[in-house]
Amino acid sequence: MESSQSMEFSRRDFLKLSATAGAVAGWATFGFDLAPAYAQAQGLKIDRATEVRSVCPYCAVGCSMIAYVTGHGETTSFNTQPTLVHIEGDPDSPINGGSLCPKGASTMQLAVNQDRVAAPKHRAPGATEWQDISWEDALDRLARLMKDARDERFVETEDDGDTVNRNEGFAWVGGATISNEEGYLTTKLFRALGCVGVEQQARV
Ligand code: SF4
Question: How many Cα atoms are found within 13 Å in the side-chain-facing hemisphere of 178?
Answer without folding.
Answer: 18
